[in-house]
Amino acid sequence: MLKSEELAKGIQDCVMKIVKQREDKFVNGEADSFGNDFLGLLVNAYHDSDENNRLSMEDLVDECKTFYFAGQETVNSLLAWIVLLLATHGDWQDKARREVIDIFGNRNPDSKGISKLKTITMIIYETLRLYGPSNGLQRRVTRKVQLGKLVLPANIDILVQNIALHHEPHQWGDDVHLFKPERFEEGIAKATNYNAAAFFTFGLGPRSCIGMSFAITETKVAISMILQRYTITLSPTYVHSPMPILAIRPQHGIQVILESLHNNA
Q1: CB neighbours of 233 closer than 8 A, spacing ≥ 6?
Q2: Which of 92, 131, 136, 152 has the most crowded Cβ, counting Cβ within 10 A?
Q3: Complete domains list, the chain, with CATH
């Protein structure tokens, strides 16, 4: 068995074990339903009495895997890159911390304040441009399409690599490889000169990422709480080597030094 097949089987077995535990709790009377969380909804659909609405076990497992990788791995990767970029750009780290302290003080972030984090938002967008969590968008061409001199026949799969478009000098300028959050000072539309296809970390159109707002909010909360508590500097052991594994991840991890801002922390 190939290593990839072994890993795929391990993930599937793990998900099915969790599903079985949820089912057993209901059958044994430990719970009065399968639950009203995401997993509970999927298990309910799997047991639906209407065959037309019933979810297969294969689909259930696939939904769980998508929920995990899209909802956790991508945000983890984004947070890692933001921490790295703040460690290597102390001026932006200081600006972001001042903004967080001005809005929240030492309180935990709340929804009202989150919407006011302009500097943090700029940093998030620029990080997504440089190290987007997705390697690209895969789509199937349903009919013959001509794009300039390029002809795409029907029934082929294409991969639109957003990382290439996010590093396009004609769109972003000759400093495209530099970390410059000020690009997004007036929002995404102005930064892209109103070209929606120039920045599509979360996809485009009706099939864009449903978790976009949640991911951005989650990232703002996490970064705010880190900046309230620590200064971030780069460890001399860090080796920069981005690598595409589902999401674009640091091959050797992120090594930074966190120093407490409070003596009793």
Answers
A1: 87, 256, 257, 259
A2: 131
A3: 1-55 (no CATH), 77-134+177-260 (1.10.630.10)
